[in-house]
User: Fold these one by one.
Assistant:
Number 1:
Amino acid sequence: MPIETTLTVVDRLADDAELTAVPFGADLAPPVELPVPVTALLSHHEAKGEPGEVFEVPVVRGDGVGRVLLYGMGDNTAPALRKAGAAVARKAKGRHSLSVLVPPSDDVSALVEGALLASYTFRIGETRTRAVEEIVFTGADEQAVRRGEVAARATALARDLTNTPADVATPEWLADQARLIAADHGLAVRVWAGEDLGPFGGIRAVGQGSIHPPRFVQLQYTPENAGDGTPHVVLAGKGITFDTGGLSLKPTEGMKTMKSDMAGGAAVMAVMSALTAFDVPVRVTGLIACAENAISGSAQRPSDVITQYGGRTVEVLNTDAEGRLVLADALAYADAELDPDAMIDIATLTGAAKVALGPSIGALYATDESLADSLLRAGEVGGDRFWRMPLVEDYRSDLDSDVADLTNVDRKMSGAAGSVIAALYLREFIGKRPWAHLDIAGPARSTADEGHLTKGATGFGVRMLLSYLAD
Ligand code: BES
Ligand code: MN
Ligand code: ZN
């Protein structure tokens, strides 16, 4: 269902292309003949060649009239091309075929990503997708186009998993999807359920109020020619299939988007699905901590004390701070059992991160400078931007409990620096590993069809993590 548009790569523009997109300033050889010079057209439209600008122009086509889309590509960088690709694909809605003449660029894959991601739709029941059926890229390096396609389809997979309503997308369903991904892409997979979840006290506590019991999922990718020196990265995703808040119940307004509370887990699954195609040179283990934070007679209560993986006890003062409870198990498990060189978690963790940075930028916390720098750079390249946030030592004591090793929220319940406090909580479980935490509560969803984004889940983080791992 996600991106139904197909993609081909050819050397030359076809003479009879239904609709042809040509960048401003391109050397226009036949078969494209404009009625007036490009410069005249641009001044007529008051166009500057900025990315996102697209004009339809009638052209001479034998005895008849053909159609050309002139599109701006700005400074020809990845962000500009991503925007240009999206604008062109949106203009081609409802058409059978679009031919895109690609400008010379090192970032062709960004153009492809933009075009495909703007063509994403999610509907249940009668589909009314009007995305262009086929895009033909001309004059582009085939490998670059295919890389863009893999990244876009992985992002679309994350959107699909996240957009699927929680009555379908239960922890069991997510684990089944992980098994399918493993089978399709040659990954090892292990799923913990029931009794096996014994040591995972956070996942059990969060899931105990739901009729859909929790799961813990592990996907493993090993590159060809892996040896003892091959680095190992662990990705851990928050997989809360629905977050009612638990007994610390959310109001409806805050609850109705909470089927997206597994966007981090979906991002991890999507990244895992693309590693083979990207020929990623490092070992990667994906962990997805899946539970439904439901409300019922069996739900955990504010003041219950739980035991996280590894034995640390936690006084749960707010059942709505559940993401950190499931992620702490995943991080402690990875530290104890997987011997990773770096651990990265990704989660729709706090409303505070959304308030601080809004819908365009994710919050990044890290204990390791070079890991932080690499991730920030990968974010600029991949198109998922992050901003580094501080792990403020002064606030750590706010997590001290009177009755257990830790509380799960600021015990003064001031609500201040909620995203920082959540990060400090997770840091308790990383041992001595280099670690980064990505809070994507803001950018995980979009409220509009805009550029490469579509309403609902965005798949934010997938392309950043892929470009980090591929380098
Ligand atoms: N899933 C939410 C965070 C969230 C909020 C994501 C809005 C996306 C949009 C998380 O589980 C949560 O409820 N966090 C609480 C923490 C608080 C109880 C300390 C929050 O942010 O209010
Ligand atoms: Mn919550
Ligand atoms: Zn949550």
Number 2:
Amino acid sequence: MKIETLPEEFIKAQPIIDTIEAAGYEAYYVGGSVRDTLLGLPIHDVDIATSAYPEEVKSLFNRTVDTGIEHGTVMILDHGTGYETTTFRTESGYQDYRRPDSVKFVRSLKEDLNRRDFTINALALKTDGTIIDYFDGLTDLKNHRIRAVGDPEKRFNEDALRMMRAVRFASQLNFKIDSETIAGIEHHGSLLTKIAVERIHVEFVKMLLGQWPAMGLDVFMETGLYQYCPDFKAYSDQLDQLRNKLKSGLSNETAVWSLIAATFNLSWQQINQLLKHWKSANQLIEDVQTATKAVQAISTQSVDAWVLYQTGKELLVIANEVAYKLGESSYETTALIAQYDALQIHSKKALAITGQDLMAAGVKPGPQLGQALNYLERQVVDGQLTNQNQVLLSTAINYLNEKA
Ligand code: ATP
Ligand code: MG
């Protein structure tokens, strides 16, 4: 088959392929960009596969970066765009269920496509629009099916991450996973424990960001794959509820984990633990803790000024989305933002008084001064006090006198 009009991204990359071909090698567009074009979806990055060896690729272009040269990947820089260009290769070994023991560069496109995970990802595209399809990927695309290239049992045994990739593509594309491929996941789920948690994390989040999360979650649950993800084993009921409730994907990673935390009913401490086990960054953990608290307030309709203030605008929007997607009560986003915007202050810095002012009025530096500022902050946020220097000063002095 032939694509009549190629997306602009491919047209822009054509000089790269032309240069490689002019030197006597083959080069094709491969991977997600080809699949997504055929599905009429926007494409992110254009990946190129070539028969030229990495050193040969490098000799043809002025600006290249060795992004993964031991696996044959060189990034070619062209007018501000980077093109990952990977030499055709086969892989063998996989004794650790995740990385091939050896990568062998080959000159055959078919051998390269043969090592790819799913048939819909094993298509190659020529610059004239011709699609090369050795494994019936076009039929699977048409039938909305995810099917391993070759024997799924073998392919998941080679690289267990592919099982997570299967469920995330199901959720991103609204595709069904082929029954033999599902059986492969059922048989090999436990191998996921051999995979670096960071890589599982990426795929899990992509699954819940996909537009049809239930498509992935169904298989994730039914095959038992979830049990081999950090800390998920004890939460099968909650994950099951989630797949029934969740009708569309989330908009960012903080929302994903806040949804999980709210569904599992986790405490502040438990969120920290779970996300540490999932190898998350500290900032993400803090955001999820804050957002999850706000989800509870939103769904129990107990949002007050202090909750708004402590959560902050960005996390409020996220928490509101999570409450909505969980089918809990939630707000009109604009109304919630309006309530937040109406607060007198949005940070402690905005208080119309400083520690300096209090000291100038005779307050001694020390814990009391901090307590007085905290008191003022709370009173101003709650609307009990006007944010005016004189008002705050006299209130602080009364407060400290009463405490003394
Ligand atoms: P996305 O749109 O998310 O980037 P993608 O299909 O491009 O999806 P990538 O992770 O960018 O996915 O990988 C590019 C291509 O490399 C895939 O389409 C597939 O052909 C191949 N590939 C990636 N990971 C694996 C793997 N674990 N096993 C086999 N082939 C893989
Ligand atoms: Mg890609």
Number 3:
Amino acid sequence: MDQNLISLVNKLQRACTALGDQGDETALPSLWDSLPAIAVVGGQSSGKSSVLESIVGKDFLPRGSGIVTRRPLVLQLQKIDEGREYAEFLHLPRKKFTDFAAVRKEISDETDRETGRSKQISTVPIHLSIYSPNVVNLTLIDLPGLTKVAVEGQSDNIVMDIENMVRSFIEKPNCIILAISPANQDLATSDAIKISREVDPKGERTFGVLTKIDLMDKGTDAVEILEGKSFRLQFPWIGVVNRSQADINKSVDMIAARRREREYFANTPEYKHLARKMGSEHLGRVLSKHLETVIKSRIPGIQSLISKSIAELESELIRLGKPIATDAGGKLYMVMEISRIFDQIYKEHLDGIRPGGDKIYNVFDNQLPAALKRLQFDKQLSMENVRKLITEADGYQPHLIAPEQGYRRLIESSLVTIRGPAEAAVDAVHAILKELVHKAISETAELRQYPTLRGEVNHAAIESLDRMRDESKKATLKLVDMESSYLTVDFFRKLPQDVEKGGNPTHSIFDRYNDSYLRRVALTILRLLFLSFSETTGSTVLAYVNMVCGSLRNSIPKSIVYCQVREAKRSLLDHFFAEMGKKETKQLSSLLNEDPAVMERRSALSKRLELYRSAQAEIDAAAWAK
Ligand code: GDP
Ligand code: MG
């Protein structure tokens, strides 16, 4: 094969490898499919195997009279950079054949294995690869000969079966057809011409090869055909003289055979003028040239396929994220960076840049006030309750003027109920803050890559929030407790006036009666009077409780924001960051343990991308090659 083609195909071969031709399961369209295959078609014993062999330049195919090729042989020539050439069968993986006589024997043995030692023909191909520094990547296909009738030992539909099988190979647009017709038979009956016309009516990929020119009847010649006069094809006919059966039997080698062929055309008067355009070597050159044209015409398509694949790979790699740094510093930096990104996203939720933080204010504006309202101080401080409480507190010796114990009891017992809503507000805000952690985690694309780190960040954030909630609860409940443990004195100093306004002159009555009997009577009266007075007491207490409740309604949110929201914004991951600083490389690595599937995918993708890029360079170089 000529040097241009070899270097062109070698460039493509490297691209091929990159594009995953070696049976890669990711199944990108294969370049083998873009590269042409060469198939020989023709009748039985027309010389197909002989022609194929001389193209390869190697004796390895079973040849002979009768039906020798009884299964298709798909032969992949694969260029290797160095080393001894060898052959391998798909059905015998890992067995390297270096002796090509043994290859020929295995082909016929494998044929027999499928068909038995009969004349039966099978459509199941044998796959053979030849690895050599002296070949280019090409697929050659040797096919059983087309027949007209089934012979003894063959099934009835064999004729159609062979034809269909042959057609299935040669109808592929990238198949170059060598239509083999023996010169010693009438071309009008040529099966090769008939079937190749069918699949390639314009003759754009069919080469007519006339064999056995040396076996023509004396007095006849093929000049008319070879000159394209009697039977025109798109490409000129090429006549060849292969080794005869006698040559094969005598093991005449390829080199000697070629020399004799050259001499034949040069020395036969009828063909002398055509000599330069005849023979196996010329056929080889013509095929090379044609392959080159075909391959070059495919290059733009291959180039765009590669660019498209590169773009796809790159975008998937971006989606998968950057690979992990290898040193401890880099790892720590990465952990910090990623955590900071999460922290930032979390803050944005609290700051209203992202949604969700507003729910906190709903707790303060609606939930807390509603909960406080549900405490129903007006019912707690109803007449009956007040009466009962005051009586119980003062017993039979009521302090008629200022039943202080009673007030205290009343107020304390009312205010203490605010603890409930206060605690509930702390918990509600805590739940929202936690929910935002989950939200921010899922929004941090960088964390998706590292499940372990994601778990740790989540854990650390929730732990911080738990701590903040505990602090907040302490502080907020303290506010409530503080309010209930000391009553604002001023508020009650106003009380006597209120009472006088109510028209209850308790002071004067009490002062006037000093006598013990009278005193007892007076006490009874006073008690009755007092009971009517307790309504006023109740409303005074209610007013006070409402006042305190109103101020707690404002200070509870302040405490919660201070202890939880502000703290979450300021120091959610402080503890985590401090812990990270103390970690060793190994621990950091385990933190950055990626999903193994992601890791695998990324490394596969990067490897592929690298190959594609070099393939792209090779193909570009091939495109410029002359
Ligand atoms: P296939 O059945 O089409 O594959 O044909 P083969 O390549 O096996 O050849 C069949 C027989 O024809 C063999 O004995 C070959 O030696 C012989 N043969 C093929 N081509 C030529 C030729 O050009 N000249 C002569 N003399 N014999 C040939
Ligand atoms: Mg054959």
